[in-house]
Design goal:
2% strand, elongated, 2 domains, single chain
Length: 381
């Protein structure tokens, strides 16, 4: 049975960031909002690590949940943990109790917990879940760290330019009045822009807000999502980061699920819910279709044009020797290190470039104001 591609068919509650914009500027995408309060990823990491620690020292599961609930300050998460505790006291498994709260515990989480319950290694599974969550948060933190300084620099630069146009340039227009014909084109343009900003500032604000809202609505539309997804996997420079981030996320999730003895098809279905790019979702669907028909995982994996040939070869070798999960986790670690190095390299290039561009813009504005003053003074004397 073929599996058709439908970007809206994912039933998983936790959605992966769709773009760098979502990762950096919209952190609420990585949270779960229940009962008016947001449950942060850090709180889920705390829950998983504390549960693992209590199981390690031999604390019964219900007592562990009760203790964690007492330590939890978020009332929404505390209510969920208490509900899980009651479900377990009534005879349900932990994974079944978690499935009743899909907005907090997605299918990857519950599948790994179920595998841990079946195999008797629940503590080790919880440690793997904590590792996955920490890796994800580390990537988001690195992305924000890389782009926060350039973004602030651009914001400050824009404010400085507006201040010069609105607060400084009008004081020089008195000297330029009636002599516009001898002014350079850049000065005349800045004078017109200054008059426009001072006279129609409200129109600029309305247009800016309308443009921002329009871009977001377009991005959420079907055509906008398709273009963004295509840009992410094929645009120069940007695609290199996106492909590595998506591949790393897919390999780590699938590797941990397979290492936890989750069946391959179930692991692929759960991994599919962590990816929002339609081209990678389509790729995972093709793998599932191929595996359901009796084919090997590596054969369909090798058809992806966005994955390095060396990675395809290592996956094929891992499947041949029967150690595919270990190979995937090792590749995910390699991608983590590679993305981290490239992000640091990108940050080291962006900062001086932003400074040069900002200095050039401000220098051009200053030159357009000061040089005409000297020209007029020379004409007078």
């Amino acid at each position: 049975m073929a599996i058709s591609y439908n970007p809206k068919s994912s039933r998983f509650a936790e959605k992966a960031p769709k773009s760098l914009f979502d990762i950096i500027l919209k952190p609420h995408q990585a949270r779960f909002r229940l009962f008016g309060r947001a449950i942060k990823p850090g709180e889920l990491i705390f829950f998983s690590s504390q549960l693992s620690l209590m199981l390690e020292i031999g604390t019964p599961l219900t007592a562990s949940l009760r203790a964690i609930a007492n330590q939890t300050k978020n009332p929404a998460l505390k209510k969920i943990i208490q509900a899980m505790q009651r479900d377990i006291e009534e005879g349900r498994q932990l994974s079944d109790a978690m499935k009743r709260h899909p907005r907090v515990f997605n299918s990857v989480f519950t599948s790994m917990i179920k595998a841990g319950e079946t195999s008797g290694f629940l503590k080790q599974i919880l440690d793997r879940i904590v590792e996955m969550q920490e890796k994800r948060q580390a990537l988001i933190a690195q992305l924000r760290s890389t782009l926060t300084y350039p973004a602030l620099l651009c914001l400050v630069g824009a404010l400085v330019v507006i201040f010069i146009l609105v607060g400084v340039l009008p004081k020089f227009t008195v000297f330029f009045a009636g002599k516009e014909h001898i002014l350079p084109p850049t000065t005349r343009f800045l004078m017109a822009l200054s008059d426009s900003l001072r006279g129609y500032w409200w129109a600029y604000i309305v247009c800016s807000l309308g443009l921002a809202v329009g871009i977001r609505l377009w991005q959420k539309s079907e055509s906008g999502q398709a273009l963004v997804d295509r840009f992410a996997v094929s645009a120069p420079v940007v695609s290199r980061f996106y492909n590595k981030i998506y591949t790393c996320q897919f390999l780590r999730t699938l590797g941990h699920l397979m290492a936890s003895q989750v069946p391959l098809l179930e692991a692929l279905q759960a991994s599919r819910g962590t990816i929002r790019n339609r081209y990678f979702i389509r790729f995972i669907d093709q793998i599932m279709d191929h595996v359901q028909q009796g084919g090997r995982f590596a054969e369909s994996f090798a058809t992806n044009p966005y994955i390095l040939d060396s990675v395809k070869q290592m996956v094929s070798t891992g499947e041949e020797v029967g150690n595919l999960a270990k190979v995937m986790l090792r590749l995910a670690q390699f991608y983590d290190e590679e993305v981290d190095r490239e992000l640091k390299s990108l940050a080291s290039m962006i900062e001086p470039i932003a400074l040069v561009v900002l200095g050039g813009v401000i220098g051009c504005i200053v030159a357009s104001v000061i040089l005409p003053v000297f020209r007029l003074a020379h004409a007078v004397y």
